[in-house]
Amino acid sequence: MRLDPGGEDFHRGVAVLVFSVILILPLLTTRAMAHKVNVFGWVEGDRVFVEGYFRGGKKAKDSLVEVFNEAGVKLLEGRTDETGRFSFKIPEKTDVRIVLTASMGHKNDFIVSASDFRESPSKSSRTPWVSAESRTVSAPTLEDPSRLETMIEQTMDRKLAPVIQLIRDSKKEGPTVAEIIGGIGYIFGLVGVAMYFNSRKKRSGGQRAAGSGQQDMGN
Amino acid sequence: MHISEGVLSAPVLLTGAVLTATGVAVGLKKMKNEQLPLVGVLSSAFFVSSLIHIPVGPSAVHLVLNGLLGLLLGWVAFPAILVGVSLQALIFQFGGLTTLGVNTFNMAMPAILCYYLFARHISQDHPGVAMVLAFGCGFVAILLSAILVALSLIFTGESFVAAAKLLVVAHLPVMVVEAVVSALSLGFLMKVRPEILGVPHAT
Fold first, then answer.
1. Residues 6+ away with beta carbon under 8 Å from B6
2. Least packed by Cβ within 10 Å: which of A41, A81, A198, B167?
3. What residue segments make up the domains of chain B, in order of their start?
4. Complex-level ipTM
5. What is the pLDDT along chain B (203 residues), one digit of tens a residue?
6. A109 and B6: CB-CB below 8 Å?
7. Within the 5-64 window of chain B, which residues sit less than 8 Å (CB to CB) from chain A?
8. Nearest chain A Cα distance for residue B53, angstroms
9. Minimum Cα–Cα distance from B45: chain A residue
10. Sheet holding A96-102, edge to edge
11. Dihedral sign computed on CA atoms, order B115, B116, B117, B119
């Protein structure tokens, strides 16, 4: 049986398929997960914390973590634990690039800037997992500028903790419905463009009169 | 299935890009105007199927649907998969732009092979046999993709056997799911839209 693109059957066939794709969508949004690996690093006191997770929030367990300095020299390496986390003491005061390699060719990196790890006097009192309230800011002593700087660092840390948490969480989310629909729309757009040029070619050339009913395409 | 940016060396990336460019050129040449809507729909299905996630082991795997694309499109699966992979890279950040060639090839080549191995022998006179062939098509496409991904990783220090074992084992559930999806899709199309199946076979 020859396909008749202008025919009612064909349109119905395509409509059925499109409809099926659209039907799957709601199912996807509830469990929109996939397998891009993410890595996120942040500084707590004198340690750098690394967390690896796949998009959708699944932890990247037992994945290789390598830490490089600005010059690309490897400073240290380790593996994430059961919760997808790894931490290390700040090795030197340069920007560090944290590279996480999960299995099956998944890899990503994150840069922790050197400016994040200034001296943090209250490091020992800090709990590693952002409990902002527990951080104390010592009384201002304005004679000492470096002291003031430390204070500002601490305040910033505290103020930014929720923001960092937000960023960390936001990266775990899967793609939005808008992104998914946008992608599908893009593909349909491409089909439209291809059809447009095909129909123009046919109109101007007139040759290639293969297939029945092709002239109806792209109207 | 999507290899991330910065994992592969330049020669592997280049080889993948050249092979994909060739495959896409062949696919575009073979693509018929009346196939366009179907190509678009299947490309979209490929694009969204990567969001259907099956939790396995330390990593995460998802549906690919390359077997189904090979089954219905033949060589035209190449451009359809390239479009899908590109959008997955741009929108979902799966894989990356430099790995576009390798990733497309890893998923599209098995589709073509399965088209020749299974899809060409499908006849609508024997629906039972056709569904078994579609099942094989979905299953083997993923298996071959897993092996191709392992092959791509061969120069990265990972041992081929270890990587292949991991990938194949992790994708076992995907193979089964895709085999079933391919068989059911074919069964559905044979009943409802048999003319769609005629398209890739028409010369």
1. A99, A107, A109, B96
2. A81
3. 10-198
4. 0.74
5. 788 887 888 888 999 999 999 999 999 999 888 888 889 989 999 998 887 777 665 556 788 899 999 999 999 999 999 999 999 888 888 888 888 999 999 999 999 999 999 888 888 788 888 889 999 999 999 999 988 988 888 877 667 788 788 888 888 888 888 899 899 988 888 888 777 776 444 44
6. yes
7. 5-8, 32-34, 36-41, 43-45, 47-48, 50-53, 55, 57-62
8. 6
9. A21
10. A74-79, A64-68, A96-102, A106-112
11. positive
Question: In B34-141, where do the E strands start and end?
Answer: 53-56, 59-62
Q: Enumerate the β-bridge partners of residue A65.
A: A78, A100
Give the CATH class of B10-198. mainly alpha
User: Residues A74-114: pLDDT tens digits?
Assistant: 888 888 888 888 888 877 777 888 888 877 777 888 888 77
- What chain A holds in terms of domains, given with CATH numbers, is 37-172 (2.60.40.10)
